[in-house]
Amino acid sequence: MPAPTKGTILPLEDKPRKRCRKWRVRKRTGRNPATGNYSERNRIVCGTYSDAEEELEKLNAEVADMRIQPKKKGITVEELFNEYYAHRVASGEVREKTLESDRSAKKAYCPLIGKALASDVTHQMIDAATARIIDGGTKHSTVSGYFAKMKLAFDYGKKEGYCADNPFLQAKKPKSDTEERVAPTEQQVATLAKALTPDDPFHAGIALEMMAGLRVGEAVKANRGDVSLLEEAMLVRGTKTKKSWGTIPICRDLTRFLAAYFDWQDGQLQGHGLSPADDTPIVADELGRRISKARLQAWWRANRERLGLPDARSHDLRHGWANVLLRRRVPIEVISALMRHSNTKITEAVYLHQDLDFMREPLEAVSILEDAWDVPEC
Please, are residues 238 and 340 in contact by the beta-carbon 8 Å criterion? Predict the structure, then answer.
């Protein structure tokens, strides 16, 4: 008789249940993550149907306690990661920047757990390794990225049968951000915009973040040829997802700022016998050499208090731009497109909850009870 949730008892004799004395007890063990195949366990029982039911209960208990063993043994964490990395390269679908992050994750974790067998790694070992990396001075957000890379490598290892489970699922994921996110208000954005001058490459990078919503990495990757001052648009070389790469309109304030900045940059380059070109970085030194993301972030940390935003990270300037758009009643679908989010749910989750004053304004015009209650004003 079929019993899908507990297993199956099949009669092996062509007799009524009360007279049948031979049964096959069958229980599916589920999908084997090492092979991708579905398997089951069978047992022959000689006796009454009640005997077959008892045997099925035992079989259920055995399957519940059963641990599927990996089909391949003896591979270390470092060997597993090398194979995973080679698989990623061979696919041709992974960008070099992402592969560079993979290598960084290996460099962080493998000196600590790389010699251990992949099948023997426990979440306690991972927790200890993560703590040591953080204690070494690596930022929590960076370690969180390394952790995610190693988790993917073990997902691959589980699929290939090198380990029965992924220990990173039970390990403590490091917090991706230990600094509280403080999105600048519209007034703070306006004050900062007035403080920016078009004769400083660092100011140009901040302007791209604050008045176009670019990520820090996108700001430093931007070239002069990406900007069309006439059309008031620019190509953003996205650093996060496929949708983050595309052309967006830019506001008139940013257009005017960049026009003045390009004039100043032309003079700087020409003073060194150089000419601007389409591939000249916007955020560049006097010789046209690209200023790195780390340098731009360091500059911001050193100057943010003077600029009136002592607690804001460089990335928070992007959030400030989105809040400006939100308070100007720009539709959430448009904000999502300008911020180049993969979908509007991300935009809503990140921004709609951040501005209580914006959400409170419409409530001030709502009065249901009018003067029904004579309550003195506070």
Answer: yes
